[in-house]
Amino acid sequence: YNTREMVSGEPPLTCDLDFTFEDLFLGWALTIGVFISFLPQIITLIVRKVVDGLSLFSCLLNYWGNAFTFVNVGLLQWSLFVCCNGISTTKCANNLLPILQLIPPWICCGIILVLYTKYAPKSEENKPSKFSMASLLSETASHSLHWLIVSFVITAVAMGIAIALSFGFGYWTKPVTIYAYVIGIFSAIFQIVLYIPQIYVTYKAREAGSLSVVTLIIQVPGSLLIVYYQGIVAHGSWSTWLPYLCSATQQLILIIQCAYYAFVKWKLRRYNQVGSPLLNSSSNSVNPS
């Protein structure tokens, strides 16, 4: 450990610069793994070029939740940036792992939201007459574009307020800490209800559609590992790791849903394949000609 005196009369800062191989391996594996876990969903949308079975509401909540989590951790663990002063780039990167780990899901969720807007139905029939909460349930491209812009604006405003408070009051001050926890609570709320719209959409569709089950299967254990890393290894706040625990639970429900509907469709296909020859042979025996 390395203790340094902060400027402007701040209390001493303890920098943990001695990382175990296990912690580094887990941290970087999670950072890279989170990015890889989103690739099946991104590829599915690009290949299918449709968004059927995918919930716009869940895509929005996923983006907001990850963006707000990044702001929350960046403010509460700003000391990680301070500890980078005077150390090598490699040690700095290892030190910033708890923050770097949250960038890939934020970026990937933004890409998915953009792809949703690109491949959303172009039909304007039965759309709400104006931009409102009703448009949140619409799958048309125009309303998806509205919410894409709103999402980017919300993110920019949240980060702008964080920067303004940090420079205005100083890091580790009460206003900054309160704002960080408020952002963390919003993130937790978003993540707690994140997959509820998707669970409903999947229930109505009775199939996965453009929802990537592979992404869900990868992300469940990944989310649980992030809970362990952020909560135990990085000693992060509950507002940081709780959203991932909620997400993992709902993702598991979605996997069970998709597996059940796939099994039902497989049984129906098998029944039709086995039943048709029987019906044909029966009709042939009745009509030998």
- Evaluate the radius of gyration: 24 Å
Order of helices and strands: EEHHHHHHHHHHH
Count of DSSP E strands?
2
Major β-sheet, in short?
2 strands, antiparallel
**Strand share of the residues?**
under 5%
Helix content: over 70%
| Distance from first to last alpha carbon | 92 Å
Report the mean per-residue pLDDT as an integer.
80
Structural class computed from helices and strand pairing: mainly alpha
Uncertain regions: pLDDT < 50 for 5+ in a row? Answer: 1-9, 125-138, 277-283
Cα shape: globular
The spatial strand order of the largest sheet comes to 1-2
Helix count?
Answer: 11
List keywords for this structure.
289 residues; mainly alpha; two-stranded antiparallel ribbon; 11 helices; disordered N terminus
Condensed summary:
By secondary structure, this protein is mainly alpha-helical.
Walk me through this protein's architecture.
The protein is mainly α and 289 residues long. It contains 11 helices and 2 strands. The protein has helices at residues 21-48, 56-76, 79-82, 89-95, 97-100, 103-119, 141-169, 174-192, 196-205, 213-233, 238-286; strands spanning 2-4, 13-15. Strands 1-2 form a two-stranded antiparallel ribbon. The longest helix has 49 residues, at 238-286.
